[in-house]
Write a structure and sequence with these properties.
Layout lengths: L11 E6 L3 H14 L2 E6 L2 H10 L4 E5 L7 H11 L5 E5 L4 H10 L3 E4 L4 H14 L8 E5 L4 H15 L4 E5 L6 H13 L2 E4 L11 H14 L3 E4 L7 H13 L5 E5 L12 E4 L4 H9 L11 H11 L8 E8 L6
Parallel strand pairs: 1-2, 1-3, 3-4, 4-5, 6-7, 6-9, 7-8, 9-10
Antiparallel strand pairs: 10-12, 11-12
């Protein structure tokens, strides 16, 4: 799932409650120029409340000073019907008590008249993004060579995809050839997107390009969860990938380090995700790398690793994670 702001399947449905026709028409025009918004207008608060009972709206924009049923009642009704639905209140009054009453009624944001397009668009985006559930936001997994991610957390990523989340895999390598072809085939099987960054990490390579690239991805993607290689890896490029990914993910709610074939003994996972049901898919993901000849991507190795860590979770097949930061309650 995605937020209403970004969803591809249809416009954002906005109910505009405004008794002044010039302001209502201005709102419609501003929204039309700002994005994919579908507007419904009414000048009456009572009618607005009825409309919310009969139809679905993603967002309500209401004036406070309405004849009859005022905007405060509209806000309370909107929140009572759908607590997570954002409500923007508009008013020409700057009295602090008036504004405070709107927030107490449940308004998410205030917009003072006269309306400013940039201010309106900014606040629309803020309230729509704020109402995203973490499970609606995408997931990012970073590796160095193709196959790192599939081995370390392929089963977990399949669980994310099963919940409807977008998954992006990034490989930080300059290598081309069989492994890259396998990476794209594995991503297609998983239903994920993959990007070969073409910006190497490790000895003799500058990390500046990687840093800027990942910063841009995280800023634009706004992932709920990032999976990175561990800091305790014997492989220098994987350690660099960990350091850079951790640096650019400071604002990401959930950050985990997955296990690799070269992870050192200091790796201390505290979350053990049961992937017994996903092992078949995980082995399919790794099978596409058969021609690469890498022993760490062999199905037998992956199964052995999953069983080894399974001793911490009922002897099932497990993918271990070191928890670097989390908001999830089951950790």
């Amino acid at each position: 799932m995605t937020s209403p702001l970004d969803r591809p399947e249809g416009p954002i449905r906005v109910l505009i409650v405004e008794d002044a026709m010039d302001h209502a028409l201005l709102l419609v025009a501003l929204l039309k120029g700002a994005g994919n918004f579908e507007t419904t207008q009414t000048q009456d608060g009572g009618h607005a409340i009825q409309l919310m009972k009969d139809r679905e709206f993603d967002l309500v924009v209401t004036d406070l000073n309405l004849p009859g049923t005022d905007g405060f009642a509209v806000i309370r009704a909107a929140k009572a019907a759908a607590p997570d639905r954002p409500v923007l209140a508009t008013t020409g009054f700057t009295n602090p008590g008036y504004v405070d009453e709107a927030f107490r009624a449940g308004a998410d944001e205030m917009i003072l008249k006269p309306l400013d397009r940039d201010d309106l668009v900014m606040k629309l985006k803020e309230v729509l993004k704020a109402k995203e559930r973490p499970e609606d936001r995408p997931v990012l997994a970073v590796g160095v060579r193709p196959g790192d991610v599939e081995l370390g957390c392929g089963g977990i990523l399949h669980q994310h995809r099963s919940r409807g989340q977008e998954v992006l895999i990034i490989t930080l390598t300059d290598d081309r050839g069989v492994e890259e072809e396998g990476a794209r085939a594995a991503a297609e099987r998983l239903g994920a997107r993959i990007i070969a960054a073409r910006a190497a990490v490790g000895e003799g390579a500058s990390s500046d390009d990687v840093q800027r690239f990942l910063e841009r991805v995280v800023k634009e993607m706004r992932p709920s969860t990032v999976y990175a290689p561990p800091s305790q890896d014997a492989d220098a490029p994987l350690r660099d990938a960990h350091r850079i990914t951790r640096s650019v993910s400071a604002e990401v709610p959930n950050l985990y380090a997955y296990f690799t074939a070269t992870t050192g003994l200091d790796y201390r996972p505290t979350r053990f995700v049961d992937v017994e049901k996903e092992m078949g898919v995980k082995l399919e993901l790794l099978t596409v790398y058969n021609e690469s000849g890498r022993p760490d991507l062999a199905g037998g190795f992956a199964q052995g690793v999953a069983r080894y860590w399974g001793r911490f979770a009922g002897f099932s097949a497990v993918e271990p994670l070191e928890v670097l930061r989390t908001t999830e309650k089951d950790v």
